[in-house]
Design brief:
The chain has 449 residues and is an alpha/beta fold. Helix 1 runs parallel beside helix 5, helix 3 packs parallel to helix 12 and helix 9 packs across helix 10. 38% of the residues lie in helices and 14% in strands. It binds phosphoenolpyruvate (PEP) and cobalt (II) ion. The site of phosphoenolpyruvate has 10 residues, from loops.
Length: 449
């Protein structure tokens, strides 16, 4: 076990850093990092501190967190319709959840920087030919050619710029009234208007609008802040050169902030307490997440808490558990007990996606809606049985009409998958499946979880 030594934005370099690309030209990488260091930041310390407070409220049971978006953002999807569709699905899901939870919901997108992916194998072999695996658009490109798969440091700048464009558009949309609750038609999605989910959703949206008009016209109060919807950005803090290049001090606030995103998290493959990623995350002021799966040990839990949240500060640490529908019944109680034994404080978020990935007979990666729903329902019950609360969910969803996950009300089957399978990495719930899941979670919360 390594004793913590003084932290700097670069102290992670002395630790084993898994899942990092190997750039053929280190001088080119240095040049790009020099540029990244001086570009203006994407988010501010005010927003980061505000999110930490909101996460603390969720940990105390007064708020629910919806963290959702693509498994991996793609540069080609940095377009107006794609971005508006992902906002729409997040807004709609969150409104459904507000009604079920009877408490405010905070939306955190897996966006504006979710461009780097951990891979199980560093090489991909096709027809006996081996090339570096695709690691996300900020590192290399998915086509199976040597040129496309070579890590290119310029992509770090292209990714940073796209993250900025994405956030800029989201902020402008929200400020301009796109997410105004008086006008739910602004964030309606076209393609599925007539499904049963859509009817239920529309009934609920008009109840919200009527409630707002009642408050404003009859009681004479302006809903003000509460009729606008905020978004926060999150991504896996995987590519440590990228993360640390925008890790800065700010005037009049102590500490260091990662200003590429509000909420960075450590993925399952890079959550080792002695590893570079946890070393990097322990020193920043942002609220941070850690993914936890079946293989964790009590000792690891104790070390995460000591390294990442030594002061046991509410909102600082979120444990995002992803055990799978089969594993949650065993894993989650053990995790809860391990955190309790250390006097730890954590916000609990369930990721029902990553423990439920399966391959079809044809070798296509998919997930079954019913497994996803089951893991969430079990997670609510287990937290309740242990006298605490599930504070949020972490999902891979899209506003597009894709066919990547099976099941759900439309009974999407394996045979349907080839129709509109877009993801280069993990399968996402499509719009209709996402809303269906939101209704299911809302019902579960209404029934007392
Ligand atoms: C992800 O969130 O896309 C991911 C890779 O998850 P995990 O680290 O939990 O496997
Ligand atoms: Co994923």
């Amino acid at each position: 076990m390594l004793a913590p030594s003084p932290w700097t934005p670069d102290s992670w370099r002395a630790r084993p850093a898994l899942q990092q690309p190997e750039y053929p030209d280190p001088a080119a990488l240095e040049r790009v990092l020099g540029e990244l260091r001086v570009l203006p930041p994407l988010v501010t310390s005010w927003e980061i501190v505000q999110l930490r407070e909101l996460l603390a409220e969720a940990a105390a049971g007064r708020r629910f967190i919806l963290q959702a978006g693509d498994c991996a953002e793609r540069f080609v999807d940095c377009t107006s319709p794609r971005i508006t569709n992902s906002l729409k699905v997040l807004i709609q899901m969150s409104l459904v959840l507000v009604v079920g939870a009877q408490k405010p919901v905070t939306r955190i997108g897996r966006f504006a920087g979710q461009y780097a992916k951990p891979r199980s194998a560093s090489e991909e072999i096709r027809d006996g030919f081996s090339l570096p695996s695709y690691r996300g658009d900020i590192i290399n490109r998915p086509e199976f050619t040597a040129a496309a798969r070579a890590p290119d440091p310029d992509l770090l700048l292209r990714g940073y710029e796209r993250a900025a464009l994405t956030l800029n558009f989201i902020r402008a949309l929200v400020k301009g009234g796109f997410a105004d609750l008086h006008h739910p038609e602004y964030f309606d999605l076209d393609w599925v208007r007539h499904s049963s989910q859509a009817d239920e959703y529309h009934r609920m949206a008009s109840t919200i609008r009527e409630g707002l008009s009642f408050m404003e016209n009859v009681l004479g109060v302006r809903a003000g802040e509460s009729d606008r919807i905020d978004f926060f950005a999150a991504h896996e803090a995987l590519h440590l050169d990228y993360e640390s290049a925008q890790t800065r001090r700010v005037p009049r606030r102590p500490g260091w902030f990662n200003l590429t995103t509000h909420f960075p998290w450590a993925g399952l493959r890079t959550n080792q307490p002695d590893g570079a990623h946890i070393e990097y995350l322990r020193g920043i002021e942002n609220p941070i997440g850690v993914k936890v799966g079946a293989g964790f040990t009590r000792e690891q839990v104790a070390r995460w808490l000591d390294l990442l949240d030594p002061q046991r500060m509410p909102g600082r640490l979120t444990l995002i558990h992803r055990f799978g529908a089969q594993g949650v019944g065993d894993g989650l109680p053990r995790l809860i007990e391990a955190v309790r034994a250390e006097g730890g404080l954590a916000l609990w978020i369930c990721d029902p996606m990553h423990g439920n990935t399966q391959l079809t007979a044809a070798g296509v990666k998919t997930r079954c809606f019913e497994d996803i729903a089951s893991e969430i329902e079990q997670a609510f019950d287990i937290h309740r049985a242990y006298g605490q609360r599930l504070g949020g969910v972490h999902l891979e969803v899209t506003g597009e009409n894709v066919t990547e996950c099976i099941g759900g009300a439309r009974g999407q089957s394996e045979a349907d998958l080839s129709r509109a399978y877009e993801s280069e990495v993990d399968p996402r719930l499509n719009y209709e499946q996402s809303l269906e899941l939101a209704f299911l979670i809302a019902r579960k919360m209404k029934n007392g979880s």
